[in-house]
Amino acid sequence: MAEQTPKKQHTIEYIAIGALVVVALIIGIARFKKGDADDEVFSRKEFNKKWKEVEILEAKVPKNEKKIAYTIEDNKFPFKGPLDEIVENKGPEDENIVLPEMQFQGMVWKSSRPQAIINNKVYDIKDVINVGAEGLGEEINIIDIKKDGIHLIYKNKEFIVRPK
Question: Are residues 105 and 145 in the same domain?
Fold first, then answer.
């Protein structure tokens, strides 16, 4: 047989390489083809087995839960916390001193300038609140505003109040 021309030889080589690629694809597809239902990543048998375990554990959960009864007291806000009213009285033993009637409406304590809103006015630390008639009212000093409440001094007695 005579020598083939280089062009013809290249054509035969390309056909041979193409045939090898096709055979490799067929082999690859055949290997990843699903065979049985148990060949899946998470088989139906294993799923059913785990589901039975869940049902067994679920059966052990008590059906009757303890119920919590909430009682409502008249004229009281239902979400009142323990710090919503006067929490602490510090100072002299004179227990007859009570803060005058005021509305504690809000406070900001975690800032560079803590503030409290009392009787529709904004107050800073070291401000003085005048309550009562003009000029005749009592003075209440704001000594601190913290997370636990507004720290006030009234008639040399310290009070901690929190907005409602």
Answer: yes
* 65 found inside a domain: no
Domain with 49, as residue range(s), is 6-59
How many CA atoms, within 13 angstroms, populate the side-chain half-sphere of residue 89? 13
Please check whether residue 11 lies inside any domain of the structure.
yes
pTM score of the predicted model: 0.42
**pLDDT digits 0-9 by tens, 1-55:** 456 788 899 999 999 999 999 999 998 887 776 655 555 566 788 889 999 999 9
